[in-house]
TrEMBL record:
<dbReference type="InterPro" id="IPR013762">
    <property type="entry name" value="Integrase-like_cat_sf"/>
</dbReference>
<dbReference type="InterPro" id="IPR002104">
    <property type="entry name" value="Integrase_catalytic"/>
</dbReference>
<dbReference type="InterPro" id="IPR004107">
    <property type="entry name" value="Integrase_SAM-like_N"/>
</dbReference>
<feature type="domain" description="Core-binding (CB)">
    <location>
        <begin position="2"/>
        <end position="88"/>
    </location>
</feature>
<keyword id="KW-0238">DNA-binding</keyword>
<dbReference type="Pfam" id="PF00589">
    <property type="entry name" value="Phage_integrase"/>
</dbReference>
<dbReference type="InterPro" id="IPR044068">
    <property type="entry name" value="CB"/>
</dbReference>
<dbReference type="InterPro" id="IPR050090">
    <property type="entry name" value="Tyrosine_recombinase_XerCD"/>
</dbReference>
<dbReference type="InterPro" id="IPR011010">
    <property type="entry name" value="DNA_brk_join_enz"/>
</dbReference>
<keyword id="KW-0229">DNA integration</keyword>
<feature type="domain" description="Tyr recombinase">
    <location>
        <begin position="111"/>
        <end position="297"/>
    </location>
</feature>
<dbReference type="Pfam" id="PF02899">
    <property type="entry name" value="Phage_int_SAM_1"/>
</dbReference>
<dbReference type="InterPro" id="IPR010998">
    <property type="entry name" value="Integrase_recombinase_N"/>
</dbReference>
<protein>
    <submittedName>
        <fullName>Tyrosine-type recombinase/integrase</fullName>
    </submittedName>
</protein>
<keyword id="KW-0233">DNA recombination</keyword>
Length: 305
């Protein structure tokens, strides 16, 4: 549908000129183009101004019939609403209202991500024992992830000046460029000190990226990548005889441990760099029932009488 394709192209320019990440733009445009392809097949000859709510609902039914996951259908519906909202906002489009506004969209229920047990964490760290540069680096990475719950993208974005080992704090730049300062424990501070000494022996200077890879990556130099962190964990898990642990599992584990230790949801939300309390409730949800039972046992209301 050439007319809709032109609107999608114009919408692309609008998205790319705003505060939308490149990955989000890619997802939105893919959704819009899939809708356009379906529309051309299901409703040949239909003009943009003839797109109504029934057509939009038909698109959502089509996705369900195709067996698309709830999360996928939700994103497709959101993207359609944004696209047609933009078109309806242009006086010369012929579309006076957004037919996809307030579409009923599925709310996916994310499966809980299992937390990592203390025994497995201890085995993982034992697999990093050694005095080599890589051993020191990997130990510091794992401990920093465990103590702060930061995302792997945040981890690899840290520069040396962002870390204060004496105060045991690190400044993290999260999504949207928002910076936050989070603390870490003594063992992590010790691991970072040992790693920084090993780093200094490589003659790379006191500034620049904190965590360095062995080989340079085009466009990033020796700064470690998020993929490199994931590969490192996979390799260390294999050496420890463990099932693969994804970096995000350490974030879930951190959130669970914080909540289990009595931290308030707002505290966890701020330290994790989340913008909504819904994320706090999701992280560590796989053992939420266990935490609730532990709280009840500590309270033991009847024992006080």
């Amino acid at each position: 549908m050439d007319e809709l394709a032109e609107w999608i192209e114009e919408w692309r320019l609008e998205l790319e000129s705003g505060r939308v990440s490149a990955s989000t733009v890619t997802v939105y445009l893919r959704s819009a183009r899939q809708f356009a392809a379906w529309l051309a097949e299901a409703h040949p000859g239909l003009t943009v101004e003839e797109i109504d709510r029934k057509v939009c609902q038909g698109w959502m039914r089509h996705l369900a019939e195709q067996g698309k996951a709830e999360a996928t259908r939700r994103v497709r519906g959101l993207a359609l609403g944004l696209l047609l909202g933009y078109v309806a906002g242009e006086a010369d489009s012929g579309l006076t209202t957004n037919p996809a506004a307030n579409l009923e969209l599925p709310t996916p229920k994310a499966p809980p991500v299992p937390v990592v047990s203390d025994d497995d964490l201890a085995a993982l760290l034992r697999a990093c024992d050694g005095a080599s540069f890589v051993d020191r680096r990997d130990t510091a990475i794992i401990r920093l992830l465990l103590d702060t719950g930061m995302r792997r993208a945040e981890l690899v974005g840290i520069d040396v000046p962002h870390v204060d080992v004496r105060l045991a704090e690190v400044m993290i730049t999260g999504k949207g460029g928002k910076a936050r300062i989070v603390p870490f424990g003594n063992r992590t501070a010790l691991a970072l000190r040992k790693y920084l000494r090993a780093r200094a022996r490589r003659g790379v200077g006191e500034g620049g990226p904190l965590f360095l890879s062995i080989r340079a990556t085009p466009g990033r130099g020796f700064r470690m990548t998020g993929g490199g962190v994931a590969d490192m964990l996979k390799r260390r898990c294999q050496a420890a005889g463990l099932s693969p642990i994804h970096p995000h599992q350490l974030r879930h584990t951190w959130a669970h441990d914080m909540l289990a230790a009595g931290a308030g949801e707002s505290d966890v939300e701020r330290l994790a760099g989340w913008s909504t309390p819904m994320m706090v409730r999701r992280y560590g949800a796989s053992v939420a029932d266990s935490r609730s039972r532990d709280v009840a046992r500590r309270l033991a209301r009847g024992d006080r009488i």
